[in-house]
Write a structure and sequence with these properties.
Layout: H1 4-18, H2 22-30, H3 33-44, E1 55-59, H4 65-77, E2 87-92, H5 95-107, E3 113-117, E4 130-136, H6 145-155, E5 156-167, H7 175-195, H8 198-210, H9 214-223, E6 227-234, E7 239-245
Parallel strand pairs: 1-2, 1-4, 2-3, 4-5
Antiparallel strand pairs: 5-7, 6-7
Helix pairs in contact: 7-8
Length: about 250
Amino acid sequence: MMGKDEKQKAVNEMFAKISANYDLMNDLMSMGVHRLWKDEFVSDMGSFKSKDPLHFLDVAGGTGDIAFRIANKLKEENPDVLNVESQVTVSDINPDMLNEGRRRGTTLRLNGLNWVEGNAENLPFKDNSFDFYTIAFGIRNVPDRLKAIKEAKRVLKRGGRFMCMEFSKVTLPIFDILYSQYSKIVIPTLGSIAVGDRESYEYLVESIERFPNQEEFAALINEAGFNFVHHRNLTYGICAIHSAINI
């Protein structure tokens, strides 16, 4: 069995390999549904309308999918630009993923985002710094998940919101069997054909299978000290949105 440092190194190397094709493969694997899930995720964060600056931290968000949605929603809900000091910070342990995000941000002409290399288990930010902490499809790749969630609590302000979206356990009978077969057979094959990398996508499927179910992960969030822990299934539990408040 891999030690913690070995696992982290292997994960880093894998994401360095697939960074340029990460979003293409997300579209292929989910048939584009991941875009709808991410829209739902940001919608579930609630209103961003505020006269005071808001500070967002998106962890493991290298390619910017969530951060771009947050930035656009922030601008739409505050057309009078009352909160020009609001900031969206993207943190990722992998510099290749961050570079891909910066490139995409430039292409989309989205300015004002901060890109910071950092480990989810030891974030380079001060206590009580952010109003929102988000992590989408990243927590399952963190070796010590409890430590990462405690870090989220540390950097959140009192009353700040923790939001996590992650692959979960399918709740619909028969569909769970079909989805399992699709994951094990189709996803690695797509990786092989589309980007010439079967091994990385075999790992991704295995990481999804090993991830705790909805109730188990909610219990971990509770253990980290959060309150009002809640989860909502998307597409029969293929993924779930978890939310909590730092009291």
